[in-house]
Amino acid sequence: MLSNIGIPGLILILVLALIIFGPKKLPEIGRAFGQTLKEFKNSARDLTRDEDEPKDKPKNSLSKD
């Protein structure tokens, strides 16, 4: 989907973002977007790590005997 944008489309999007949000807000928006992507990436990594754990080990140490 994003491969169809091209350089002119990307420039147009950046110019529109600059007009809409202004030069003072763009760094804040970029920083927030970067932090969101970082958190999403960490969460996805944790989910895949949880699925890779062996099923043999009980996750709960409390057992009813």
UniProtKB/TrEMBL annotation:
InterPro entries the UniProt entry points to: TatA/B/E, TatA/E
Keywords: Cell membrane, Membrane, Protein transport, Translocation, Transmembrane, Transmembrane helix, Transport
Domain of life: Bacteria
Region span, Disordered: 43-65
The UniProt record lists the keyword Transport: yes
Protein localization: Cell membrane
Keyword Manganese carried by entry: no
Membrane topology: Single-pass membrane protein
Sequence intervals crossing the membrane: 6-23
Signal peptide residue numbers: none
Chief location of this protein within or outside the cell: membrane
Matches recorded under Gene3D superfamilies: 1.20.5.3310
Role played: Part of the twin-arginine translocation (Tat) system that transports large folded proteins containing a characteristic twin-arginine motif in their signal peptide across membranes. TatA could form the protein-conducting channel of the Tat system.
Alphabetized HAMAP family for the sequence: TatA_E (MF_00236)
Sequence similarity: Belongs to the TatA/E family.
Quaternary state and interactors: Forms a complex with TatC.
Name of this chain's protein: Sec-independent protein translocase protein TatA
